[in-house]
Amino acid sequence: xxxxxxxxxxxxxEKGKDVELRCxxxxxxxxxxxxxxxxxxxxxxxxxxxxxxxxxxxGLPSDRFSAERTGESVSTLTIQRTQQEDSAVYLCASTxxxxxxxxxxxxxxxxxx
Amino acid sequence: xxEVTQIPAALSVPEGENLxxxxxxxxxxxxxxQWFRQDPGKGLTSLLLIQSSQREQxxxxxxxxxxxxxxxxxxxxxxxxxxxxxxxxxxxxxxxASKLTFGxxxxxxxTL
Lengths: 113, 112
Hints:
The complex is a heterodimer.
Chain A: E1 5-7, E2 10-13, E3 19-24, E4 31-37, E5 43-50, E6 65-69, E7 75-79, E8 88-95, E9 103-104, E10 108-112
Parallel strand pairs in A: 2-10
Antiparallel strand pairs in A: 1-3, 3-7, 4-5, 4-8, 6-7, 8-9, 8-10
Chain B: E1 4-7, E2 10-14, E3 19-25, E4 32-38, E5 44-51, E6 56-59, E7 62-67, E8 72-77, E9 86-94, E10 99-102, E11 106-111
Parallel strand pairs in B: 2-11
Antiparallel strand pairs in B: 1-3, 3-8, 4-5, 4-9, 6-7, 7-8, 9-10, 9-11
């Protein structure tokens, strides 16, 4: 596609439920990142995928968070047993290769009530 | 651990003024530095990317400089317009994953 696409754009869920967020990177981009932005705060790195290499999961805040990516296509970020502190905007970015310009999606605003 | 600081946190200027936003980082072993803008409730829009071997990049009214050895970058905006009002973020790429570490941003308001 023309840009990074994320869905849904907004998600309201009840505490304790699982949610799945989707990211469609720019076609041909080998690297994909997930970031989290809490209200009024900076971006926190969550996870990084590069081609078929093992992902860098060093930013995932707990074992309730997981992400998958098949090849160089769509990625899904799953949050299990959501908590109120998970409320944030989740942003996805892709790059054509390492160390090149990063392009971000519009984000998914997650609200846990 | 890489830390990125942006000064000022907020800035209000009248339309037409030239302005400078500052970004500093603690670990000079970066691969590149990127400036973004973020409009309220929106994602990030890439403005400029400076590779570690470059000193500056220009795009229209925007000019970004990089002094890697001192850990600093500036974003110069010429002849500011109300449409420039947004939060400006700088991010540096470090490590084998070229992970981007972000500053907390400068919130810019350009008034009529």
